[in-house]
Amino acid sequence: xxxxxxxLAAKVLAGEATTQETAELRxxxxxxxxxxxxxxxxxxxxxxxxxxxxxxxxxxxxxxxxLPSSHQKELEAALQKRFxxxxxxxxxxxxxxxxxxxxxxxxxxxxxxxxLVFTGIHxxxxxxxxxxxxxxxxxxxxxxxGNAQLRRSDGKTSVAAVMSFESGDTLSVADGGRVLIIAxxxxxxxxxxxxxxxxxxxxxxxxxxxxxxxxxxxLFAPADQLFGPELVVSTRSPSGIHIYSPRGRTASLAPLFVxxxxxxxxxxxxxxxxxxxxxxxxxxxxxxPPIDFAERPDWSGRPLKxxxxxxxxxxxxxQPGTTSDCTFLTAENPLPPESRPDLAKxxxxxxxxxxxxxxxxxxxxxxxxxxxPLSSTDFAIHLKLMxxxxxxxxxxxxxxxxxxxx
Length: 406
Known about the structure:
Structural class: alpha+beta
Distance between the termini: 53 Å
Number of strands: 16
């Protein structure tokens, strides 16, 4: 029971627990006073960590200014109160090893380590903010209407629906043309006629963005910086069939199902309702990806339900030992099915990744169904790299980085 408690407590404190998991934790706490005490200590330490993160963020906003004395006194008082309450606790047998963090001597060490970590993060952020990334990609231009071209700093010109640009390049948009500029701190529509150097956009024309650091790295870092832990999530060595979509959250009640496939092989697909196990299963036999939920006559009459947890299972036909599965959560306010041209899919994938939380599976579904030449653009490759990295599929990430280097 304690092992299950550990898992549920971690999910609830991280804000990742389902309604059923939260209810299960409450049931455990209601009948076990010892678990109640352990969870209370976990909550206190979680708050301490979050307070430290908030302070680090405030230090970032304030540059090299000192922490305001009022905030410093609040932190000192909170730490003193926590240490005094911890010193009254007695060691008790049978407490799991991780609860040692809440005993007095371990708590002091933990808090010191937390302080060092946040200080280090602050110093690192200050350092990386002042050291430019060498040879980093400057940004992308998407032509939404009409004509536009890029003149490179070496005199060559590029004309394509999606183009990447670097420092010194000049953009010319024809009369009636409209483009979208995506750079590290810019998301801007321009309408022609206009000609300008892309690293000299007037400050009045800039639209600051609030993208996460992960998105910034994925889109604008050079190839040799795309293998870091922020981009490629560590997992338990994903094996079997790699399922790409839907994953995590999906904005659709009739999503596109996409997975890794082998030439000449067919697959068995099952979708089950984890919240209501008695719900009839959605099944497809001898199929190949992708599967469009809305285009299957036997599925379209009973779409998925909003804010519901489902499980997708995929296996090679006739080989049940090859089964892979994943869960996904439908959105509380889902979007209606929509058929989009490739450029709109590319833009939609970018928007989905920039959301919080990101709709990684939906983004992959869009990107993997885009045809050339758009699917081979730097912009599409960087987006695919980020999404697949968030699923922990390092092999796919390595292949994409090799494509960027060619």
